[in-house]
Amino acid sequence: xxxRKQSWLSDKDYNFIYSRAPRVCVDLVxxxxxxxxxxWRAIEPYKNQWHLPGGRLRWRETISRALQRIAREExxxxxxxxxxxxxxxxxxxVQAGKKRHTVSMVFLxxxxxxxxxxxxxxxxxxFFKKLPKKTIPIHAxxxxxxxxLT
Length: 150
Fold this sequence. Notes:
Layout lengths: L10 H8 L4 E10 L2 E6 L9 E2 L2 E3 L6 H13 L3 E17 L2 E14 L12 E5 L8 H9 L5
Parallel strand pairs: 1-6
Antiparallel strand pairs: 1-2, 1-4, 2-3, 2-7, 5-6
């Protein structure tokens, strides 16, 4: 089988495309008896705020694979998707000084292993039963609306 080398967008191409079209992302809800897993964001946008683990889909990456990749990268968890909970829309997001329009589908996922670990962009994590202060406002609104946290 002939596999083509995977290539990602250059910063120039990324900025050109995403200044003109919405980015598609996925966010994960990991929930257990301790609450909902949130991670502490170490990068902009929304640096130093709690958020749902998430990230953008890559070219030709399935949603299921994106959920698995992002869970592994941000929490160390292996997960399987359970169901789509809804979406969040960031109409006026700013990323590296550039305006963005991001649409994120939010999925309930089931962890296959039990011990999350903070990593890279999200070095800290915790489970919450009540919404913590300093949560990204759009995430807080989604979590309240869907009765995940109060």
